[in-house]
Amino acid sequence: MTYKKLIAAGKTHLEKYPGQDPAPDPATLFSAGARWMSDRLNQLDGNHTPAFNPHINYTLYGSLKYGICLLGCGLSGWWLSKYSMLLTPLSILVFFLLEVNFLFLFPLLIDNSATPVRGSIRAVFKIGILKCVFTVIPIALFMVVGLFRKRETVRNWYIGCLAILIWYNDEVRNRI
Fold first, then answer.
1. What is the pTM of this model?
2. Whole-angstrom Cα distance, residue 146 to residue 142?
3. How many CB atoms lie within 10 A of CB 7?
4. What whole-number distance in Å separates Cα of residue 166 and Cα of residue 150?
5. Which of 123, 111, 135, 141 is nearest to 34 (CA)?
6. What is the pLDDT of residues 124-163, one digit of tens each?
């Protein structure tokens, strides 16, 4: 699916199942987000998603994911700045090249995958890493732009997360 179709599907799903989306809390961001994703995956697949497992350390996985991405972004920015400050924005591309490998990490954790990191990387490579990057970047921009809205600042964030869940449910879940 294209990013436009995924975002549209995310909007449609959020309108169909408005529910109460949790307000982001930095202390429980990854575990609360995983619980929300689990609920949404249940809605997408007719309640066939395994019961939410609160014993998985979602914070560790989320910290690992974004720690690697931010480290790669920072190191590449530093290295590129040695050649020209004009090149440093390319470090954002490095962030996404790393981040896209973990694209399906949380849905795989929710589905109790024995190897969620490897499974996410494998799924991304089956789809195509460039296709994933060029699909994820517009979704990410859509999510970030929403944070600057005066009202419903996280609405786009939830739609973007739903877009990834829909992508996972429709194109990845049955392949693993």
1. 0.90
2. 6
3. 21
4. 27
5. 111
6. 999 999 999 999 999 999 999 999 988 888 889 999 999 9
